[in-house]
Design goal:
Bound molecules: flavin-adenine dinucleotide
Order of helices and strands: HHHHHEEEEEEEHHEEHHHHHH
Number of helices: 13
CATH class of the largest domain: Mainly Alpha
Strand content: 5-15%
Number of strands: 9
CATH superfamily of the largest domain: Butyryl-CoA Dehydrogenase, subunit A, domain 3
Oligomer: single chain
Number of domains: 3
Largest sheet: 4 strands, antiparallel
Low-confidence stretches: none
Structural class: alpha+beta
Strand order of the largest sheet: 2-3-7-6
Mean pLDDT: 95
CATH architecture of the largest domain: Up-down Bundle
Helix content: 40-55%
Shape: globular
Distance between the termini: 48 Å
Radius of gyration: 22 Å
Amino acid sequence: MSPDKQDLDAFRREVRAWFEKNRPADPGFLLPQSFMEVGTDEQFYFLRDWQRKVYDAGYLGMAWPKEYGGGGKSQTLQDIATREMVRQKVPFMTNTIGLNWAGPLILNMGSEDQKNAYIKGILNAEDIWCQGFSEPDNGSDLGNAQLRAEPDGKEFVLNGSKIWTSLGKHAKYMILLARTNLAATNKYEGLSFFLIPMKIAGIDVVPIRKLTGEFGFNQTFFADARISESCLIGQEGGGWQVAMATLAFERGAVGGQAGGHSMMSKEVSEVVRLARAAQRNGHPAIEDPVIRDRLVQLIMEERSLALNSARARIKPLVAERPGSIDMSSKLAGSEYQRRLNQFALSLQGANAAYYVGDKNAYERGQWQRSYFNSFSATIGGGTSEIQHNIIGERVLGLPKS
Ligand SMILES: Cc1cc2nc3c(=O)[nH]c(=O)nc-3n(C[C@H](O)[C@H](O)[C@H](O)COP(=O)(O)OP(=O)(O)OC[C@H]3O[C@@H](n4cnc5c(N)ncnc54)[C@H](O)[C@@H]3O)c2cc1C
């Protein structure tokens, strides 16, 4: 039976109080803004302990089956808990790949053994997951992935490289798309999908420095790394279908994620604060009609993004184009964040050039860092151009070319 309004209100109060009481103190070092920017060990361990605490309190994986470590409760309760995490701006959940796409994938397509082996460790952050999709020459063109997984008895032998592996340095497992059949006439049919251990001979993870000067993603090299055939998820040769199911979870196009947030997004109210403090022609910038106009547009956009995600859950409202909101939410949300950060920088005038670490930087340079980082979500998980293509073809029914 789904909870009634009184139950939901009581639950909201409970969650609110818990996060107010338990939010971790400022660690005294710079925290990453999203799971894609977890670079140092101190950042990682701090965030891992936090996720563990949230899970132990019962506010993560609330709607996942109880027998594997989930809460066995309603999705509505999880949504309330997640919204409260966002509202209170508590640190994000670091095991995002596990919580939001590897986990739902395993629950949907994994064997009983795989569910028993992996789900609880995803929720309590004991086992961090990373994703091996992109390759140096094949990112958007995922179907062309070339990393080899050659069958050898009851094993596969991995050779090649994956790139931009977020969390790779700290991950215990990877979801991996690899080529098992070089002779397949259709490139998609030569692919298989694996759940692989990262800490084995033949796998080497090399960090890549980002625009911000920080780390977070890596290049992962495979040289004769041997994995058991039990690492396969789905059929050998059926990897493309599994990869598409994974991407649907990753982009939020289907539900089933464990909940929790994966990044510290900026809000327009913070930019309004900035516009009050910044000067334009000797007056507070917020008094400038052009700036006010931009702010109002951003406020409307932020509001419509929030209302859209609520609307997506009310079936009659989306019956005409099912999935349209879910399929556009990554594109709309990530591009909004990029524009919001860009506008925040423009308010700082020439001072926008000061970066983190410079005593002249406004609010310790957090907007500059946030602007650079805001590009991450417009690229990772499929670029905005690719998202436009998907919406054009699958929602609007436009031809492929
Ligand atoms: C912060 C961050 C974290 C990431 N984390 C991971 C990770 O953990 N695991 C992982 O596997 N990958 C990860 N990625 C990689 C990401 O998925 C790829 O960067 C992305 O899919 C684009 O691939 P690419 O970089 O090879 O660019 P390309 O595919 O070479 O694209 C270059 C440009 O061409 C455009 N383009 C390409 N094809 C088309 C087309 N058909 N139509 C229109 N435009 C097109 C693209 O939009 C882009 O602007 C991450 C990326 C970032 C930025």
